[in-house]
Amino acid sequence: MPSRLLVISDTHLPRRARDLPAEVWAEVDAADVVVHAGDWVDVALLDRLEERARRLVGVFGNNDHGVLRERLPEVARAEVEGLRLGVVHETGPAQGRERRCAELYPDLDVLFFGHSHIPWDSTTSTGLRLLNPGSPTDRRRQPFCTYLTAVAAGGRLEEVTLHRLPPRTA
């Protein structure tokens, strides 16, 4: 049975926004699995996602400390509908990313990562798909805040969609 994934990263709550956008909370409710690739900043979001998500797979990022590092791993692995997925916050510079990740994660089909706030979608020579959802709350130098949805089915990742959020109003 296909599973709907929501992938977010670099939420930086409450520093960059007071809360996740309503559209993202609606996706949390619709998802079978919520993936967060680090930089939560405040444990309150982790608590809320654990309460609301059917299944949560998350890691800590470089801006996460204390309780977040106690409760979350640096690297997470999960199997969803036969798809072997991994989550990590940082993968290093864009140059050489595919080679590094293929060497570090030969047991995965897809690796979700964050840190840069820059959406990314590439596939290594070994077939590992690398995906960064950007950030739903802190676009930095990107034109939009973003997040990803996808469907895991039969060991494959399908319907990968990068969603652009409308500009926030004060």
From TrEMBL:
This is Phosphoesterase. It comes from the Bacteria. Pfam families: Metallophos_2. InterPro entries: Calcineurin-like_PHP_lpxH, Metallo-depent_PP-like, Phosphodiesterase_MJ0936/Vps29. The lineage of its organism: Bacteria, Bacillati, Actinomycetota, Actinomycetes, Propionibacteriales. It is an enzyme of class 3 (hydrolase). GO terms for molecular function: hydrolase activity; metal ion binding. The keyword DNA-binding does not apply. Belongs to the metallophosphoesterase superfamily. YfcE family. Its cofactor is a divalent metal cation. It comes from Nocardioides terrae. The keyword Flavoprotein does not apply. Its EC number is 3.1.4.-. Gene3D superfamilies: 3.60.21.10. NCBIfam families: yfcE. Keywords: Metal-binding. Residues 4-149 form the Calcineurin-like phosphoesterase domain.
